[in-house]
Write a structure and sequence with these properties.
The chain has seven helices and no strands. It folds into two domains: about 20-95; about 105-140, no CATH class. It is an all-alpha fold.
């Protein structure tokens, strides 16, 4: 893999790895629904500001209906339902247990990719899926 994608993935890991600590602290004071709502409002405000300042606001409104439905479904599943259930688990459990189990979503993605997209199951991919299941079992 080239350097830029690796750098971007390192930044992603740092961002995603540090936010559960912030969220756990924030959830001491509020209900998970409020946490998800405030988080979503902040994201929306920043995205709209960036879109407006970069001249890309019109791009958002030129998206076809199918694409809107796909991204809206993704947002509702991951950004609302997934975050809400994750915040409840985070509020009630230790981050060191909650985060690894929540981060097992690649298992779901791999299985759905095979079932719905016809992606091939290689030996390495199968072993990766097995390791995910073992990892979940180890942190339970």
């Amino acid at each position: 893999m080239k350097l830029l994608p690796l750098l971007l993935l390192a930044i992603t890991a740092l961002c995603w790895g540090s936010t559960p600590i912030l969220e756990k602290v924030g959830l001491k004071e509020v209900d998970p629904f409020v946490g998800v709502t405030v988080r979503s409002m902040a994201i929306t405000a920043v995205l709209l500001a960036v879109a407006a300042l970069s001249g890309r606001l019109r791009d958002i409104f030129s998206v076809d209906l199918r694409t809107v439905v796909i991204f809206s479904s993704s947002g509702i599943l991951a950004g609302l339902l997934g975050m809400w259930t994750y915040f409840w688990a985070l509020k009630m459990g230790a981050t060191s247990r909650v985060v690894p189990i929540a981060a097992s979503y690649p298992l779901v993605t791999a299985l759905l990719g095979m079932l719905l997209l016809g992606e091939q199951v290689t030996l390495l991919r199968f072993l990766g899926i097995v390791l995910i299941v073992v990892g979940i079992w180890l942190v339970k």
